[in-house]
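hey
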């Protein structure tokens, strides 16, 4: 691959960002936006939208391949991502071709206590129509 092979971002997500993402996406599932509801779930408090995490990871990968866009993803969420916790977002190149680049991606708590999102995302080159 000729592009940079990895990118990392440290970030603390906020409840206000969860709420904004709900307004933008239309996903008002109370597990993301209602502290009272979330308190009664196994998570105990609101958790980040999975698509919010994927959007951040996709944007991070796009810093390595400017102009390329998310084409595919296979992601899992083994632990919740909460507002107010320092998180580390990482993408690492695992394969590349003329019109596609694949990145292993991970979101984890900055203290190393858990991975909250991981998998593979693929970016497509601008001329592929992806």
């Amino acid at each position: 691959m000729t592009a940079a092979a990895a990118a990392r971002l440290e970030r603390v997500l906020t409840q206000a960002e969860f709420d904004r993402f709900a307004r933008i996406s239309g996903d008002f599932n109370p597990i993301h936006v209602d502290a009272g509801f979330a308190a009664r779930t196994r998570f105990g408090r609101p958790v980040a939208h999975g698509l919010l995490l994927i959007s951040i990871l996709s944007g991070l990968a796009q810093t390595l391949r400017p102009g390329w866009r998310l084409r595919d993803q296979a992601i899992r969420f083994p632990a919740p991502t909460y507002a107010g916790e320092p998180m580390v977002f990482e993408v690492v190149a695992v394969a590349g071709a003329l019109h596609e680049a694949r990145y292993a991606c991970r979101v984890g708590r900055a203290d190393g206590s858990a991975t909250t999102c991981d998998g593979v995302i693929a970016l497509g080159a601008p001329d592929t129509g992806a």
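The two ends are 19 Å apart (CA to CA). The first strand starts at residue 6 and ends at 12.
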